[in-house]
Automatic annotation (TrEMBL):
AMPK is a heterotrimer of an alpha catalytic subunit (PRKAA1 or PRKAA2), a beta (PRKAB1 or PRKAB2) and a gamma non-catalytic subunits (PRKAG1, PRKAG2 or PRKAG3). Interacts with FNIP1 and FNIP2. This is Protein kinase AMP-activated non-catalytic subunit gamma 2. The keyword rRNA-binding does not apply. Residues 71-80 have a biased composition (Basic and acidic residues).
Amino acid sequence: MLAHPLSQPQPQEMRRARVFTRRKGWGSGTWPWAAVTECPCLGLRGPGGLSSSPSTPTQVVKQHTFPLESYKQEPERLENRIYASSSPPDTGQRFCPSSFQSSARPPSASPTHHTPPRTAALAAAPGPAEAGMLEKFELEEEAEDSESGVYMRFMRSHKCYDIVPTSSKLVVFDTTLQVKKAFFALVANGVRAAPLWESKKQSFVGMLTITDFINILHRYYKSPMVQIYELEEHKIETWRELYLQETFKPLVNISPDASLFDAVHSLIKNKIHRLPVIDPVSGNALYILTHKRILKFLQLFMSDMPKPAFMKQNLDALGIGTYDNIAFIHPDTPIIRALNVFVERRVSALPVVDESGKVVDIYSKFDVINLAAEKTYNNLDITVTQALQHRSQYFEGVVKCSKLEILETIVDRIVRAEVHRLVVVNEADSIVGIISLSDILQALILTPAGAKQKETETE
């Protein structure tokens, strides 16, 4: 039986890091709290809950331009398709306490609310805050009537609410938590990022990610003999004040009623990898959207939609990916040097290339968190090969592709492998380029590859 959080005293440390497990109310628009589990890595005890259930406003439903409305009445079908033959996404792990495993789902419903015509929204004179929206609408209109815009229209017709799993785990940190404990909590819960809650403002103020861990190590590491005081003693709020004092930006988030097109546009425009879904009424964080989750959702329904011609074209013809000045490292590269490259080049993964130029491994930002798991972050002079021996998960090898493979094959491979990028290689297995999830989403949704190619041919 879950105890009410206010029925027993709670040490201050227990309130600083929580793992929330939500069960989604299909069709009802509510987001009841199913359980609250404290982070075991912090020595926290006992389950808890919230005094009231947060809720979202009833979502506005738009007429779909695809014959997919049936899944709205069949949430089980959608969930089964999303989770079939795959592990949970980065920040949306399925976690259901035994007390909820046998409980029935709320009956589904289809709210019927009138959606204001888009022309009305565009009638008003745009202000500075609306400039980005107009730019986005221009992108939509260019491909709206073409075959290449089929995925764009699909994403516009679905809400962020549609992609949130029935049960999901969300790790939230208070900014007064020590940095080291926060990263240990990320490791213990198998997530890559967590929203940051500032009690003084009573709102979410940012995200703590593995990039922050890398930046701390990069900035303060001296030698194996010198302890990184800033990592051991600083609180999250202290780190944010020191590191973000010149580059501070407000938290980028999105409403559950916003379209998935808006989500993709926000992710790519702001050059971020995680987008918190926050209820604008209650201020509660509901889920964290990622490129991987969005592409998986789109790929599940690709077979139900007309296939654009560009899906049968190869990467070389479409020009998708990065092929110039690719950052890479060698097996004997020290970890501290790899971290420097992460920071200086602003990349999320580094192919590991041997003396012959062949790609033999890949070192990603996610691998860096293993330094926290193994508590070896005080010695960054070890080589990449030594560090990769401590991978927490079985590594099946570098997922590669060729520039001559078609986009349809690329999408299927990156979704099935559940990776964030493919290494493009030639016949000798030497690195040619990198194609990332954001590259693919950009080509499929924001600037459909087919439309871009027609422009080139016209010129």
